[in-house]
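Session log. Operator J.P. requested a structure for one protein chain; no other inputs attached. Running the standard single-chain path with token output.
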Amino acid sequence: MIRLGLLIPSSNTTMEPEFYRMLPKEFTVHAARLKLKSVTVKGLAEMERKIEEEASKLADTDVSVIGYGCTSGSLFKGLGHDLEIEQRIEKVSGKPAVAAAGAVIKALKSLKIKKIAVATPYIDEINRLERQFLALNGFEIIDFKGLGLSSNLQIGRVNRKTLLKLVLNLNYKEADGIFISCTNLPTIDVIEELEAKTKKPVISSNTATLWAMLKKIGVSIRIRGYGTLLRRM
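Structure written below.
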């Protein structure tokens, strides 16, 4: 049995169920929660204050790795924010850590994606910071569209039709791949369909974070049904 740990926003309703669906039965997922209702800079900054406290509790379950399951929350302070969060978690927990934003960077690079089209559920305040973070990490952004949502519960309720429309309306023709941001945005039911329609690799925050967590602990399994990234583990 391999235990994976997640530090997620208190209002996240998507990441745990998606991880369980993607993982084989020999894995279990254990989550601690950080208070967050609105995905704003203020809300993310307040949430981050409790990282050490909750990571320390999560380590008591003897998980093999801890994922910081918030994309915007691990990039809003700019370049290197993801690494800082990983170091904070590792210091207090004694466990290897992966921050969602850093996982996305590694996943895109592993697929040799340099030009990206990005879809998010976020408001403009967060979109600006995410665009900047991706650019500073060396990516050329071909297009970037958001849904304008700040309520994390609303983000978790975005339906399949809305997500498909958002992604397919991106100008993705010149992109090497497509990134769908946010660990609370339900994505895994549409990734294969989007890859078939766009002829591009599509990664989400959750597929990237899972991929990076397994890589971090040296677990190599191919997971089918959720996009190119996980099939190529």
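Operator note: Residues 196 and 227 are 10 Å apart (CA to CA).
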